[in-house]
Amino acid sequence: MGKATCSFDNCHSAVITINENNIINLPEQVHNQFKLLENRTMQDAPLSENNFLVVPDVWDFDNVGVSREIPSSLLADSGNMGEFIFDYGNSSWKIKKCLKYLICADCDKGPIGIICQVQDQENDQERVLHLLSLRSLEVV
Ligand SMILES: [Zn+2]
User: Fold this and answer.
1) CATH number, domain at 46?
2) pLDDT score of 30
3) Ligand 1: centre distance to CA 124 (Å)
4) How many domains does the chain have?
5) pTM beyond 0.85, yes or no
6) CA of 13 to the centre of ligand 1 (A)
7) How far is ligand 1, taken at its centre, from the CA of residue 67, in Å?
8) Where are its TM segments located (predicted)?
9) Ligand 1 center to residue 136 CA distance, Å?
10) What's the 58 CA to ligand 1 centre distance in angstroms?
11) What does the DSSP assignment read for 26-91?
């Protein structure tokens, strides 16, 4: 089980210990759609390139920052939102909207992930999950 750290020189702040059971794959365009930071060292990463880590609770992070604002183009029902569906736990979830960005708590660089409102495809229940882009971090 690895640790995800900030990929920037002079920072390398610990972000989270990776629980491999919570790793999901989202399509490539998620990075563009949400304008997530691309990891400069991704070719060295042992994990496949589209991996995200689902983090149910903000307290699961060692260190993380939250951006105050998100671009209006990412707000709910803006019309240009792709359909992103992933399996987590015993459910299949659809990303409804991006609420905030995750950034490095120390150097404020990012975004390294998103805080999303997601909807259970079975019963339409909604909850909030943190989706951390492992590609935007260094995995050690
Ligand atoms: Zn940092």
Assistant:
1) 2.170.150
2) 85
3) 36
4) 1
5) yes
6) 5
7) 14
8) none
9) 11
10) 17
11) --THHHHHTTPPPPTTGGG-SS-TTEEEEES-GGG-SS-EE-S---GGGSTT-S-----EEEETTE
Q: Rounded distance, CA 64 to CA 37, Å?
A: 15
Residue 117: give the domain boundaries.
Answer: 2-139
Residue 63 near residue 105, CB atoms below 8 Å: yes
List, for residues 3-43, the tens digit of each pLDDT value.
999 999 899 999 999 999 999 988 878 888 888 887 655 45
- The CA distance from 57 to 37, in Å, is 22
For ligand 1, the distance from its centroid to the CA atom of residue 15, given in whole angstroms, is: 9
> What does DSSP say about strands 91-103 and 85-88: parallel, antiparallel, or unpaired?
antiparallel
Confidence of residue 103 (pLDDT cuts 50, 70, 90): very high
Sole residue written with tokens 């995800």: 4
103 vs 96: CA distance, rounded Å: 21
Please provide the size of the chain in residues.
140
